[in-house]
Design brief:
Elements lengths: L4 H5 L13 E5 L25 H13 L4 E5 L9 H10 L3 E6 L12 H7 L3 E4 L6
Parallel strand pairs: 1-2, 2-3, 3-4
């Protein structure tokens, strides 16, 4: 095999510098009200893997200790996690911006009728992850 290290040692490519962590993305679990073929985590109504309450309670501590300014929540449908509202409120109490990667259809599901108002009341930024164009 030909050595390529010489090509890497002498270069005018600018040095890469690491910046501080500003966003913590958390996949709360694989439970989702939908089952999309293109889903990269194969989330569905039949998945049961969810982040434990013990881990959920660590997230605000990490946000504070690392001075992270944004919490990005994803899943499945993160809103379906039983501790979603707890985590949103805890992060907002710390002044952390919260992003909810939402498929939007969850907002119409039985039991989640208040979710849109909850997100608005807590100033959560909703990023729509649309399941399909049709």
């Amino acid at each position: 095999m030909k050595s390529t290290i010489e090509l890497l040692e002498d270069t005018d490519f600018p040095a890469i510098k690491r910046r501080g962590l500003t966003v913590l993305q958390v996949n709360m679990g694989y439970l989702c009200n939908m089952s999309c073929v293109h889903c990269h985590v194969a989330a569905s109504p039949y998945r049961t893997e969810m982040m434990s309450r013990e881990l959920i309670e660590l997230i605000p501590q990490v946000l504070q200790a690392q001075d992270i300014d944004t919490l990005d929540l994803t899943g499945g449908a993160p809103e379906m996690h039983k501790d979603f509202k707890y985590l949103v409120k805890a992060a907002r109490k710390l002044g952390v911006k919260v992003i909810d990667r939402c498929n939007l259809t969850i907002l119409m599901e039985e039991g989640y009728e208040d979710m849109a108002q909850f997100l608005a009341d807590n100033e959560v930024e909703v990023v729509a992850s649309l399941p399909c164009y049709s």
